[in-house]
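Q: Sequence in, structure out?
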Amino acid sequence: MEHLFLYCLVARALWDYSGLEYLGQGLPCLTFPLFLKKLMSFIHQPDLFMAIVAVLWRIWRSRNWVVFEGKQYGFPSLMRQYHQQYEEWVNLPLDRVPRYSIPVVQQSGPVGGRYGCLYVGWGYQEWFHSTGGMVILTPDREVLLAKGIQFPVIDDPMVVELLVLREAILWCQGLGFTE
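A: Exactly. Output:
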């Protein structure tokens, strides 16, 4: 994980392009979660936090394109995608996102913790919502299951990704990583 997000050529180029490379300077080589926690302890501006999340997400999406879809891309394309994605996240009005209700599957016992967690694994993502529900997003985003909470069913993959990342940002803020 450290290589993917911090040390490979693609990651280093994207950190440099975003202007955030200075945030990690002087920090010893740590595991990625510890590096991220230390990095976020320096952040006091919402836009800076959003830029960090955008860099991490663009690295992850690019890796998935190469591994699962066999796509190739160049650095200029990667930088353009990062910039477009950052602008979309900053300007996305959540009240304009289409929302559809789905049946709630009741589960015995609590799911997740007070703040929950985000886990990105091989080909799927699980989001433990702060209210204790779980959302599972399949690789092709065709199935969205919710347990314990009402969660929007959205057909547009980009909107789903933006909502998941917005939730991740709110979760990190709830843990005190940002102001």
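Helices lie at 2-7, 9-18, 32-40, 46-69, 75-91, 157-174.
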